[in-house]
Amino acid sequence: xxxxxxxxxxxxxxxxxxxxxxxxxxxxxxxxxxxxxxxxxxxxxxxxxxxxxxxxxxxxxxxxxxxxxxxxxxxxxxxxxxxxxxxxxxxxxxxxxxxxxxxxxxxxxxxxxxxxxxxxxxxxxxxxxxxxxxxxxxxxxxxxxxxxx
Length: 149
Prior knowledge:
By secondary structure, the chain is of the alpha+beta class. The protein has one domain. It is built from 4 helices and 5 strands, in the order ααβαββββα. The protein has helices at 4-26, 35-38, 58-76, 143-147, and strands spanning 47-53, 78-91, 96-109, 115-122, 128-134. The strands form 2 sheets. Strands 1-5-4 form a 3-stranded antiparallel β-sheet. The chain has a two-stranded antiparallel sheet with strand order 2-3.
């Protein structure tokens, strides 16, 4: 009987702990993100981007999230132009040869200054999400974006 009791106690304890951990897994509450965070937006009024940050402080996280969204918009509107011109001219009668080569490269990123934060969300883990719209003067975001959950 004395040999049986420790084994029995061990088995009961094992079943209890397995049951406890399984019940903890099944009762975990998910933190669903709003649709506007996971769905890309586009329309004729401008550019949309979602930024996020988690710095452990709402205000700092919000500011960084806005900055991250502006960075994403800037990447969308970046323009690159590369051109090359190569002219060769020769005059066989005079024995002259002229070669002109011209390379040009321009990279421009429009300054993202006209932005509006349309929506914010703070997840349970502290991550702050923002939906930012950037447009030309006079453009306003479409109603479908403003109504998104």
